[in-house]
């Protein structure tokens, strides 16, 4: 079966998606699937690319650049720049190139039902939840309401539209929010993923509050008493202006290009043009507002929840029963924002949550119930808090979890025995199963599923030859062995296993669930301890699913 790996996209999470495309390409089982790479550019066009396109440190490094000295995304370049290097394919041509779309994209247009609807129109099956679950999973305001209906949880929230915020007395509005929600206040852009557009206001500081709200609207006010550093534009040096213009490109910390000057309607696509416009506007002394062309029109405010933060994946079986994976606790972090998740090494994680067995079960039951009641299928990751008084408060169902090799969903699937390659195979097969239920192009999809199941059954009946990978007691050897393991698992030619040679008289076969340990010290601690009861329970509950792939 040919699998089109879709990555990139117009959303702010495209760098995360770029890394996910690389993971999918590297770990797709080549004995079952043939990968075809589809880069979705910033304007939403589909382009066939070669594997070399994914070998750069970042998406910006992979894209053609101009001679300005700025590093930009393709929306800042002339529209024909990509045409020469990356051939475009139209949706009606998809079936000429692949049998199924593997979605490794995130955020608006990518996991909100938009790309899913387009693919359904062209009768192209895709991975992940369907239209209903995707639409719910991207809308944080709707999620709060539906989760409360599903399980009765109570969490204080408030929202405001952009127009209402601009007309409001900011000080009075902030005071009313603090009276309702207390401090700190969590401020969220309601349609973003990867914790982009999330800020926490910890003090009764009006300037800090206004900066947080503008950040989540993806706007920037430039006025003498403005909240933005751009208000100091006239006092900046030429080098500082270039540095700030480059920061504006950033998709996780800037409002990103293209931006519109709301007072004039002028659209700025490039950092060079941005500097010229700001120079001209600053000399006039007028107040202006910059907004992303994809700015949010509402902002969500939530009370700050004190408790143990967790993230819990959910998968389902052929009968659509949802089964929660072992929850991961995220600790040693003040805010689980984009920088904490992807750029800092301070955030710590452990499986399961450091609490009682009963509380871990409570988390799993709550997550599985919300997954089902919100109309999500195939798989998802749902985040939440376990409060000191034992309540489980859920938020942010993520219908296309991040797909780096160390992503939480893959760590949790390893706990039930599925390695990276097995996990991707599960995702493809279960997605086919769910697309059949939609009643569109049913005969064709059933044939794809039957062929895949026959291949999986044949592999069970005729196991691949085993390849043992041995490693010693250094972290470097452990890392190299894990990389080799993943490469061999994805080759579809052999069945790898890891053997830790601690000494002449002592060796250990390493189970899949220990592949995500980072150091030999962590590995030895895990080998010396009994498995947590919750992990054993979850392995038993999912055995009828994993038996197909292991």
Automatic annotation (TrEMBL):
<keyword id="KW-0436">Ligase</keyword>
<dbReference type="InterPro" id="IPR011761">
    <property type="entry name" value="ATP-grasp"/>
</dbReference>
<dbReference type="InterPro" id="IPR011127">
    <property type="entry name" value="Dala_Dala_lig_N"/>
</dbReference>
<dbReference type="Pfam" id="PF07478">
    <property type="entry name" value="Dala_Dala_lig_C"/>
</dbReference>
<keyword id="KW-0133">Cell shape</keyword>
<dbReference type="InterPro" id="IPR000291">
    <property type="entry name" value="D-Ala_lig_Van_CS"/>
</dbReference>
<protein>
    <recommendedName>
        <fullName>D-alanine--D-alanine ligase</fullName>
        <ecNumber>6.3.2.4</ecNumber>
    </recommendedName>
</protein>
<comment type="similarity">
    <text>Belongs to the D-alanine--D-alanine ligase family.</text>
</comment>
<dbReference type="Pfam" id="PF01820">
    <property type="entry name" value="Dala_Dala_lig_N"/>
</dbReference>
<keyword id="KW-0963">Cytoplasm</keyword>
<keyword id="KW-0961">Cell wall biogenesis/degradation</keyword>
<feature type="domain" description="ATP-grasp">
    <location>
        <begin position="228"/>
        <end position="429"/>
    </location>
</feature>
<dbReference type="InterPro" id="IPR013815">
    <property type="entry name" value="ATP_grasp_subdomain_1"/>
</dbReference>
<dbReference type="InterPro" id="IPR011095">
    <property type="entry name" value="Dala_Dala_lig_C"/>
</dbReference>
<keyword id="KW-0573">Peptidoglycan synthesis</keyword>
<dbReference type="GO" id="GO:0016874">
    <property type="term" value="F:ligase activity"/>
</dbReference>
<keyword id="KW-0067">ATP-binding</keyword>
<dbReference type="InterPro" id="IPR016185">
    <property type="entry name" value="PreATP-grasp_dom_sf"/>
</dbReference>
<keyword id="KW-0547">Nucleotide-binding</keyword>
